[in-house]
Design a protein that fits this description.
The chain has two helices and two strands; from the N terminus they run ααββ. The protein is mostly helical.
């Protein structure tokens, strides 16, 4: 019985050590790769005028979209207001017919 547990323990230790060795080698490869990448020169940056051109284009595009949205809102507003009146007919002015109640006798008073 003792022999069985000893062999089982040795087998587990060997498997553990093998896994540990494999993970250590993998970490070593990753570290070497990272060091090699850090030693390579960084990619060249575009000249500063290029950044200004990009910012200018972005600003132009943004202002164009703003103007376009503003124009759409104006069209929508004129469309809504034109539903009620047309250019041929001026709007009619009508007084609302109000109902008033006499609080003393509780009778409706009609206002012409």
């Amino acid at each position: 019985m003792y022999n069985f547990f000893t062999r089982e323990r040795e087998r587990k230790l060997l498997a553990h050590n093998a896994a540990l060795l494999t993970s250590t080698e993998e970490l070593g490869r990753k570290i070497q790769l990272k060091v090699m990448r850090s030693l390579s020169p960084p990619p060249p940056f575009p000249p500063p005028s290029h950044h200004a051109d990009i910012l200018s284009l972005q600003h132009d595009e943004s202002s164009r979209r703003y103007d376009q949205q503003l124009e759409q809102k104006k069209k929508l507003a004129t469309g809504i207001s034109s539903r009620h009146t047309s250019a041929d007919q001026p709007p009619r002015v009508e007084a609302y017919k109000t109902k008033k109640w006499c609080t003393v006798c509780s009778v409706e008073v009609r206002v012409p």
